[in-house]
Design goal:
With 165 residues, the protein is an alpha+beta fold. It has one domain: Beta-clip-like. Helix content is 15%, strand content 25%. The chain is built from 3 helices and 10 strands; from the N terminus they run ββββαββββββαα. A 3-stranded antiparallel β-sheet has the order 3-9-8, with no helix packed on it. A 3-stranded antiparallel β-sheet has the order 4-6-5. It has a two-stranded antiparallel sheet with strand order 1-2. The two termini are 21 Å apart. The chain binds zinc ion.
């Protein structure tokens, strides 16, 4: 395995809802931070599981393979959703990595935009409670953060990204 993940850069800690992953040092933008690991299952099978809302740790790589990231050894499963995230997922030869999209300060929670279908399936009636959405709710005139526009996907796609390059 490539040395792209350094456990010293993050730790699991208490987040707003349950657990989250937090930076233990300042992390620069553009850094491959952590790999989303787990068993690969056929995406067809993953879609059936999603219909039953039975596993929120499925991360689709493409139409063929999905990673089942439910093992606790997969620390990336603790990364919570934000509509204004500080990492983005990228797939590279069947592996899924989270890369920082801006500088993350020590102590800051590491977040990713999991996309609308994931939110519809696994978020309760209160909807998204990320900091960006809470700020938007405080200011009723403000719409959702613009950062979420870039990651909007077709509703048929789950927690998935297109391979870059
Ligand atoms: Zn949100």
């Amino acid at each position: 395995m490539a040395k792209t993940t350094k456990p010293s850069l993050y730790r699991v800690g208490r987040a707003r809802t349950g657990l989250g992953l937090f930076a233990t040092a300042d992390i620069p933008a553009g850094k491959l931070l952590i790999e989303y690991t787990g068993n690969r299952i056929p995406t067809r099978e993953a879609r059936e599981i999603d219909k039953r809302r039975a596993n929120k740790y499925l991360f689709e790589i493409d139409n063929r393979f999905t990673i089942d990231g439910s093992p606790r050894s997969n620390l990336a499963r603790y990364v919570n959703h934000s509509c204004d995230p500080n990492t983005e997922a990228e797939s590279n030869r069947g592996r899924m990595m989270f890369r920082t999209v801006r500088k993350i300060a020590e102590g800051e929670e590491i977040t990713l935009d999991y996309g609308e279908e994931h939110m519809e399936l696994y978020f309760g009636p209160a909807g998204c409670l990320c900091d960006a959405c809470k700020a938007a709710k405080r200011k009723p005139s403000a719409s959702k953060p613009s950062a979420s526009k870039a990651t909007k996907r077709k509703s048929s796609e789950r927690k998935s990204v297109k391979a870059r390059r």
